[in-house]
């Protein structure tokens, strides 16, 4: 079934009375919800008159805030007033002094002990069960590459595979070249090189690729195939080939090496890739979807192009859905280190064990040091668009971002590029860059991606379906064929967080089953795999 | 004219007597030139019998070398023997202890004062003269992108431009989306962020794009269009539009912003890109090649997948050609910091002024510190393929790499991502990564690229033609439709360095004129733009 518009483009916004949204009782600011903002002089429901024009998503002071006093949103100080701010004023970023990051010592550890939520049973989707027990939501032939050198040849071959082979294998959804910039010209023995190497390894093992691992290698590169995928890191799918090669089965990685003496001329390289691809396509084509429990979902949640509504509409709806998924026994990853750093105390408190809390602190400390090496800190995160959308600084942005994680206990932590090993809610430590986060969540084994956006982005991945959630109805209307869900209805007052959360949950099962495509899939919008390589290039 | 095979595939290697190549009189090792290497017991021309089998490209000891004594190649110690090495032994990497990098103090500065070489006049090519005086070798519409977010939409638009618009503009060679991973999710105010930002800016101004600058922006990204291309960094090509906008002409950057309110639906974004593209295509299509002097060539030289022959055949031929180009008044850039670091004394000696020498030392010192931050050093450079090809370590590799720079005085130095401002021989400081080096040389304004390879790589760029030179005839035979020049004839004894250098010079004029295509162009083999971003991501 094709995607349906999140909001029909013709459905204009109704004229509405002035509307502000306050997150917690003790907050002394609220954000303006109305499209286009509100002019100076507007009288709010409680009788407060605006002293300034306040743009949509931006904050208005609900009370007089004296210079040096905290500006409270989400119940916490997102900054301190640099001068007296009278009630009714526009509280923009230049009026706020951002607090320092909370230290990583003396944090509350595993102090929040929510009652075990009721299991959520009976929800299923139609997925591709893999030999290792994982489940794919798509049936894709991936061509792993050891190095950027082979990208041109592989791309040439992929175009031919798409034109000549895919039509013969109608049960295969696509062929994807896992192009990347790594593999040579990099300090591959540097301590931090472990990150990009394991990322590439684990991407090639993503459940949407059906356990078929096919590698194109140049030959002389630093990232040799056996270093990328050492024996034991993958399993052979074809039982006949296991029987053929006997005890060495695990070493039988399928590699097309361009520098092999057997290759005479460019076309012989291309033909080798096509020949090997066809072996894998034949096996992938024999697979069929089967009914599996919702617990087989491995969902990565992310936000990008955020605005002040992200933390009010889309992210809370995703958080509600995260709780549903955890209750259903599924796996959910939240990420974006700089966008949760300022909520570290909330996260360590929600850790299921002290070990989980320590692992989170370890990842945050590593990232603090990494940023410091480059002479910046977490405040490097916010964008011009964030600020235009009302987010004054990274503290305010983080408070809105972190709610995607819902309320379940955090039971796991992944370092960048690691593969997910457990169900439940995991903090997958990644940079906040949309592409690096998506790449690392793909490596972790994500089979479905949820992406919220306030400013709007046409983000998509080739390997995993991406459900995009708009934070505002205005965006959902204009980008009616790019946004899959409109959470702006929450700010409009026409839907609740719970309703949108359930809508998203059901859409996830539909998309995972292949019954529905996302808009990014419909238009084939694919962003690049972007590796996190904290080590030097050479 | 289509490319012609560097060496016809059917032309088998003639049976040859044992052949070794010694670079300088004082060397105590030579490399084996024969395809397949030489077996133990082989008696060389001077009567020395091999004690071991020595693979092709690998070193044989010409005399007894006592433990601790220097192993000399290119007249310098590439290492010290870790144990006694009898004459006739295979001198492999495990027998060598690599020397420490030479310090950056007390270097000879501008001590080499070669007689001014005779000008080389009368050579021309057919190029596209740009408004700023630069000359393009191709006539390409480039679509600059501020951020990876827009890559999927731009790619969709480019496919339509290629199918629907390009056929109407037959004098335009191609349309290229300048996709990259930068623009957001990065510490854009970090001190080192200057490198990727100016790289992207200068790539969009490459002479092969005819001065037509067209930008696709998301809207909320950190790298805003006016930050990427501030007023004054580019000039308007269309004089009518200058007249229209009057004094603000320079601010009139052509930007398609996906988040613009005017865009309703995905197709409206695509249509905006097509509409703007057509304006530029019409202007590009009106251009014609004209005869220009060879001094308008801006050549970047690079090597990748090097072997022991690189420094014996292809790189010396490129070096000879570099001297021809400099004599003709052209611009030549050599790069790859870790691959010239061990020859820093040669480079500072060849600097035309103390300022040039100091700039080289500054760039090397910066890179030393950059590698040290990642807890590696220059030795992280060599690859498994280098070693298999006979290069024991980075010292030996560097001695072979540096000869691409020929013998002319070094008159300029560029920091990574800077645009070339002067003719003659310039050290463009870049990492040695093939893709990062090519990307930075493209930013510097390269209009022709020369790439030597011993192990073999199908390297290509979308923006600039790449002439690939094989170091060995065996590679040139097998990769007959990927290699443009066979410098292996030098080792075979069927051509001299000078002959191959002149062959390359004439081929460059033909390729620059569009009379000949390179093999990478013929197959449309394009590697990614890979930015050098020493700053953190967020």
Provide a descriptive summary of the structure in words.
The structure is a homodimer. The first copy, chain A, is α/β, with parallel strands linked by helices. Chain A has two domains: about 1-105 and about 300-530, no CATH class; about 125-290, 3-Layer(aba) Sandwich (Ribose 5-phosphate Isomerase B, Chain: A), CATH 3.40.1400. Chain A is about 30% helix and about 15% strand. In chain A, strands 17-18-16-15-19-20-21 form a seven-stranded parallel sheet, sandwiched between helices. A four-stranded antiparallel sheet of chain A has the order 1-2-3-6, with no helix packed on it. In chain A, a hairpin with a 2-residue loop joins strand 4 and strand 5 (about 75-80). In chain A, helix 2 (about 195-205) packs across helix 11 (about 435-445). The longest helix of chain A has 20 residues, at about 265-285. The two termini of chain A are about 50 Å apart. Residues about 235-250 of chain A have low confidence and may be disordered. Chains A and B meet through helix 1, helix 5, helix 8, helix 9 and helix 11 of A and helix 1, helix 5, helix 8, helix 9 and helix 11 of B.
């Amino acid at each position: 079934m094709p995607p349906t518009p999140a909001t029909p483009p013709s459905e204009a916004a109704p004229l509405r009375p002035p509307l502000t949204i306050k997150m917690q009782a003790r907050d002394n600011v609220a954000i303006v919800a109305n499209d286009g903002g509100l002019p100076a002089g507007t009288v709010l429901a409680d009788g407060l008159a605006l002293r300034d024009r306040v743009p949509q998503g931006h904050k208005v002071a609900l009370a007089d805030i004296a210079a040096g006093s905290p500006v409270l949103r989400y119940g916490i100080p997102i900054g301190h007033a640099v001068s007296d701010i009278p009630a009714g004023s526009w509280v923009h970023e230049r009026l706020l002094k951002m607090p320092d990051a909370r230290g990583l010592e003396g944090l509350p550890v595993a102090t929040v002990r929510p009652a075990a939520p009721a299991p959520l049973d009976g929800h299923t989707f139609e997925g591709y069960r893999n030999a290792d027990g994982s489940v794919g939501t798509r049936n894709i032939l991936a061509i792993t590459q050891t190095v950027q050198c082979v990208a041109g040849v592989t791309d040439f071959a992929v175009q031919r595979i798409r034109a000549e082979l895919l039509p013969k294998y109608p049960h295969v959804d696509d062929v994807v070249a896992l192009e990347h910039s790594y593999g040579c010209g990099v300090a591959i023995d540097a301590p931090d090189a472990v990150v990009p190497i394991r990322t590439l390894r684990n991407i090639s093992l993503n459940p949407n690729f059906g356990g078929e691992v096919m590698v194109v290698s140049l030959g002389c590169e630093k990232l040799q195939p056996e270093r990328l995928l050492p024996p034991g890191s993958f399993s052979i799918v074809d039982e006949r080939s296991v029987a053929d090669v006997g005890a060495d089965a695990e070493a039988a990685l399928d590699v097309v090496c361009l520098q092999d003496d057997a290759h005479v001329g460019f076309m012989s390289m291309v033909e080798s890739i096509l020949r090997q691809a066809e072996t894998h396509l034949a096996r992938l084509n024999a697979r069929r979807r089967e009914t599996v429990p919702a617990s087989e979902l491995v969902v990565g949640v992310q936000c990008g192009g955020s605005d002040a509504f992200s933390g009010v509409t889309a992210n809370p709806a995703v958080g509600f859905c995260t709780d549903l998924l955890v209750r259903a026994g599924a796996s959910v990853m939240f990420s974006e280190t700089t966008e949760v750093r300022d909520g570290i105390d909330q996260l360590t408190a929600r850790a299921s064990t002290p070990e989980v809390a320590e692992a989170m602190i370890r990842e945050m400390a590593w990232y603090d040091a990494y940023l410091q090496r480059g002479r910046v800190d977490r405040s490097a995160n916010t964008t011009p668009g964030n600020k235009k959308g009302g987010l004054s600084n990274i503290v305010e942005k983080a408070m809105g971002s972190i709610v995607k994680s819902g309320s379940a206990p955090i039971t796991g932590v992944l370092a960048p590029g690691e593969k997910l090993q457990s169900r439940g809610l995991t903090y997958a430590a990644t940079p906040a860059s949309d592409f690096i986060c998506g790449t690392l969540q793909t490596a972790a084994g994500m089979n479905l991606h949820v992406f919220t956006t306030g400013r709007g982005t046409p983000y998509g991945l080739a390997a995993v379906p991406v459900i995009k959630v708009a934070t505002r109805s205005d965006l959902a209307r204009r980008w009616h064929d790019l946004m899959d869900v409109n959470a702006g209805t929450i700010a409009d007052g026409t839907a609740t967080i719970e309703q949108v959360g359930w809508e998203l949950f059901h859409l996830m099962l539909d998309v995972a089953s292949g019954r529905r495509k996302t808009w990014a899939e419909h238009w084939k919008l694919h962003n690049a795999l972007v590796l996190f390589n904290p080590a030097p290039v050479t």
